[in-house]
Amino acid sequence: MKILVITELRQGKWNNASFETLAAAQQIAKDTSSTISALVIGKGLPAFADELATKNVAEVLRVEHDLLDAYTPDGYCVALSQVITAAKPDLVLFPHTYQVRDFAPKLAASLGKGMIGDCIGYRNESGKLVFVRQMFQGKTAADVTFQGAAPWFASFQSGAFRADLLAAHPSGKAPVNAIAVTLSPEQIRTKPLDLFKEAKSAVDLTQAPLIVAIGRGIKAPENIPQAEALAKALGGEIAASRPICDEGWLPMERQIGSSGQTVAPKLYLALGISGAIQHVVGMKGARTIVAINKDSNAPIFEIADYGVVADIFEIMPALTEALEKSKSS
Q1: How far apart are CA 65 and CA 292, in angstroms?
Q2: Do 145 and 35 sit in the same domain of this protein?
């Protein structure tokens, strides 16, 4: 089987979810004895293609064109449909980003194919791939398979696979092949405007290695500085469950969960969070989850790697003090 991974660049930088999807492809390739091609699309790509070639892939496809400098769904679909038709992959994988959600279903439909989006995992059942995706805000999961002939299209949710487990190329670098595509201005029906910019204080929690998240147990906005001090001592970011942001105690960009951001940090410290499924779906991909809650029956303990049944108002200052002492010593 041939696997093609479509990576994503945004404003001249990698979207880290691209490497998570590449890690998923490496696992699938290992389970199915498949080969992987990684594709980078846009303009001014040699350095990005060379970096991608250091990963354990059979080849890197570089798709450059002046009309691909700025993202448009029409431009990407026209170019990628040509590449897919020529390369004939069996499985095309994407990171489940806002951009992918915009163009990938259109791309699949233009080739007469369906797409399984926002997957959190897969299984190999006697050579047949079964993809797992969440439904009803994570309350249940569905097993989904493809019908019909290849190519098949699927995207993986951010945090579903770990980019740090990505294998390097055994001989140092895979070959990079430039792919020419035919694209005219008349085929692009939209004109990209300035990118939407978040407020200056906004933060992309998906890139944070350490997160301290607070829930209803924080009790009042006056107590949030204690959690912020702990996050600062850890060198991490502060985040929250939905009720905290709904109350306006923290801005909405700090919300983790099905209606907020999906994160997968190295450490997720949950303070006074009960563990409702809507929150859990946004952070369960964390490498290590530490939960502190005075309710021993809180659902958060079911997914926590370490659980502490205690009052967060006793733990937060003590932990902050210990961290600050260790830095000064």
Answers
A1: 52
A2: yes
Q: Is 52 exposed, middle or buried (0-12, 13-18, 19+ CB in 10 A)?
A: buried
Sequence letter at residue 277: I
Residue 234's CATH number = 3.40.50.1220
- The rounded distance, in Å, linking the Cα atoms of 250 and 238 is 9
The structural domain count of the chain equals 2
The span from the CA of 22 to the CA of 5, in Å, is 6
Task: Tell me, yes or no, whether 148 and 265 share the same domain.
Answer: no
3-state secondary structure of 246: helix
- How far apart, in whole angstroms, are the C-alpha atoms of residue 57 and residue 49? 12
DSSP 3-state assignment of 291? strand
How far lies 211's CA from each of 20, 120, 235, 262, in Å? Answer: 19, 21, 9, 12
**Nearest CA-CA partner of 129 in 142, 143, 118, 115:** 143
Domain that holds residue 267: 205-328
Same domain, yes or no: 16 and 122: yes
Best CA proximity match to 101, nearest among 147, 159, 61, 154: 154
Please give the Cα distance from 159 to 151 (Å, whole number). Answer: 25
Are residues 34 and 72 located together in one domain of the fold? yes
pLDDT exceeds 70 at position 216: yes
In a domain, 90, yes or no: yes
Phi and psi at 188, nearest 5°, equal -105, 110
Contacts of 13 (CB under 8 A, 6+ apart): none
pLDDT for 239-253, tens place per residue?
A: 999 999 999 999 999
Domain-terminating residue out of 156, 187, 218: 187
Place of tokens 């997720």: 268
| Boundary residue ending a domain (138, 157, 187) | 187
Residue 109 region by backbone torsions, left for phi larger than 0, else alpha for psi between -120 and 50, else beta: alpha
Q: What is the pLDDT of residues 114-127, one digit of tens each?
A: 999 999 999 999 88
